[in-house]
């Protein structure tokens, strides 16, 4: 690749949203969102409760069908593709509320996710044998600092450990673009730094593209390359953290509200 081609490739967004919108019974929840996210970039989404952040993530990940506009991944229009088709193309997400099985152990969660990622031919019997995924599971548990909790049921984990397990379940599928919906929600103040460090290492060390909804400004300012501000379902601003904080439109919109 020539230097010029490399520059163009780096500038080409891996994920593009054009005029993306979602309405419920004619009421717009997400409206006219257009932006591009570059490979390896970290974009944090902020905005008050009800601004449409989770709804936007639902449109990107395919959980909700867009009413208007398009979602383009690696230059391919995936607007009509379902969740699994998008996941197969490298899009993974976590949810605001916990999606774990209380009675299943940490290792069982990750092993089952590895099996699911391997596709329909990996059978339940294969899962029971466990051996094919042992190394993969061990690696992911090591990376997410959960190796010592491998045999612990999810119900016995702290909130921070549950969030780590959700990340482990996601990472074993090897997604290139990761959507994290409030990964610090419900996590104690003592556990936030370790979880923040883990998210940072997923971005920097594993080189993943990350989109994250986060209310804690102190957390996202140390992580995000750019900050996207959602307001009443629209994308009000998308810029570097400093520029967004200094943006008078953003300040006006949030007058009297905590960002
Ligand atoms: N399935 C639905 N049907 C009708 N309205 C919905 C639906 N899902 C979300 N909404 C509404 O859309 C708006 C945006 O919700 P959304 O959860 O996307 O906001 P958010 O920015 O993620 O908020 P929070 O920070 O509280 O998670 C809210 O007013 C919500 O009540």
From TrEMBL:
Gene3D superfamilies: P-loop containing nucleotide triphosphate hydrolases. The keyword Cytoplasm does not apply. Pfam families: ABC_tran, BCA_ABC_TP_C. Keywords: ATP-binding, Nucleotide-binding, Transport. This is ABC transporter ATP-binding protein. Residues 15-257 form the ABC transporter domain. The keyword ATP-binding applies. SMART domains: AAA (SM00382). PANTHER family: ABC TRANSPORTER ATP-BINDING PROTEIN, CONSERVED COMPONENT OF ABC TRANSPORTER FOR NATURAL AMINO ACIDS-RELATED. SUPFAM superfamilies: P-loop containing nucleoside triphosphate hydrolases. It comes from Streptomyces beihaiensis. InterPro entries: AAA+_ATPase, ABC_AA/LPS_Transport, ABC_transporter-like_ATP-bd, ABC_transporter-like_CS, BCA_ABC_TP_C, P-loop_NTPase. GO terms for molecular function: ATP binding.
């Amino acid at each position: 690749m020539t230097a010029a081609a490399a520059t163009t490739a780096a500038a080409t967004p891996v994920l593009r949203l054009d005029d993306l919108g979602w309405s419920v019974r004619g009421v717009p929840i997400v409206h006219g969102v257009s932006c591009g996210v570059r490979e390896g970039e970290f974009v944090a989404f902020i905005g008050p409760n009800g601004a449409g952040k989770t709804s936007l993530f639902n449109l990107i990940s395919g959980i909700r069908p867009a009413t208007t506009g398009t979602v383009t991944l690696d230059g391919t229009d995936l607007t009509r593709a379902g969740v699994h088709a998008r996941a197969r193309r490298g899009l993974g997400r976590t949810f605001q509320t916990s999606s774990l099985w209380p009675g299943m152990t940490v290792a069982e969660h990750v092993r089952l996710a590895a099996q699911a990622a391997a596709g329909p031919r990996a059978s339940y019997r294969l899962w029971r044998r466990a051996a094919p995924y042992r190394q993969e599971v061990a690696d992911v548990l090591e990376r997410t600092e959960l190796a010592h909790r491998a045999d612990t049921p999810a119900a016995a984990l702290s909130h921070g450990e549950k969030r780590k397990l959700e990340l482990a379940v996601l990472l074993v599928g090897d997604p290139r673009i990761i959507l994290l919906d409030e990964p610090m929600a419900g996590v104690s103040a003592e556990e936030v730094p370790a979880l923040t460090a883990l998210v940072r290492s997923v971005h920097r060390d594993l080189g993943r593209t990350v989109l994250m909804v986060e209310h804690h400004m102190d957390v996202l300012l140390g992580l995000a390359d750019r900050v996207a501000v959602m307001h009443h379902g629209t994308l009000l601003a998308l810029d570097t953290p400093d520029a967004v904080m200094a943006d008078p439109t953003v300040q006006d919109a949030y007058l009297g509200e905590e960002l």
